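We store chain and fold; thus.
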Amino acid sequence: MKLPYEWQIGLRYTCTGKRSSDNGFISFISLISMLGIALGVAALIVVLSVMNGFQKEVRDRMLSVLAHIEILSPFGSIPNWKLISQEVGQNPSVISSAPYIDMQALLIQKNKVNGVIIRGIDPKLEPHVSDINTKLKIGQMINLRPTSFGIMIGVDLASALGVTMGSKVTLVSPNSVITSEDVPPRFKQFTVVGIFESGHYEFDRTLALVSIDDALALFQLSAPTGLRLRIKDMQRAPEVAQQLTRALSSHLYIRDWTQQNKTWFSAVKIEKRMMFIILMLVTAVATFNLVSSLVMTVTDKQADIAILRTLGARPGSIMKIFIIQGTTIGFVGTSIGIMLGCVLAVSIPWLVPLIEHVFNFQFLPPSIYFISNLPSNLVITDVIKIGIISFVLSAIATLYPSWRGANVHPAKALRYE
């Protein structure tokens, strides 16, 4: 199928020409513009993929300890927690539920004292709502037997206290019976029966797990303080939480995992948005090169434009020629950038360790960062968004040069030919 002459001329200008000695330089500028767009798009895809990878890695590590949804009572405990568990189980999105107790306390080992969050759990039900059992370095979940007063702590907390499997620690609870004079704390000795490593410093440093029966006795409670839920799609946690709020018969407080870490996720979202804007400026700079190359092409091709005008070409057709040239450069540059960016983003898990091995250094030293490997998560919607924005910027960059070419006066252009 024969292309219209605007397409034929525009595509020919995109490649190279032989009428003027300047054509080689103009083609070089067009090539630089194309490579600039490609590098900008590739860099943006790689950076966003790494940021998505970090977000996913930290989120997964958080959710290995956190539940997708938590139900709490404003009165401190939920006596009818079994009824609530049955009610939430009627929601098709809920997979399982488990009771828990969350209280603050102190752990003492000789002269070392650390504030901790004591979480009382049911060892049989907890694996259905979290992945903490898969994060155990030492011990097993069944070691948390009722009345045995065993405790599982994070690896960083164990290091801070200087304890290991079988060590004795003293738990100091501020909850006790209030007398007329003061509120004496409660002391209880626990045995370390497990050490876990979630990969998240906050939990590995401040979280301790005990049997829910031991927690009830220690904190003098008659019922759990809440329920932990796991749902089929954790991304729908806010929606499912709203559904449960309307469905439950009791007045309870329901929060999902996004609310528990709202500040962190908001910060990551803002950082990702700003990084997108900053790196998109790289592509914008490349489009400025595209403007300059098209202006130079218009200046070099004034005689050709004048001849086309004398043969009856309309100004709109002249504009179309240079729009086709610019959008072709933008399209090819964007396509190359997308392919290069996707290949690099997918290759990061093995490419970065290879670079570290060759040059004998680490991008993320384990002594500083809790994630030692550079993660990557390529999101197709990000790639599509980047491609569309890059192509639109390229198309906008063609408007002024093409308008300038359409306004070339044939007589003035041919005066010195």
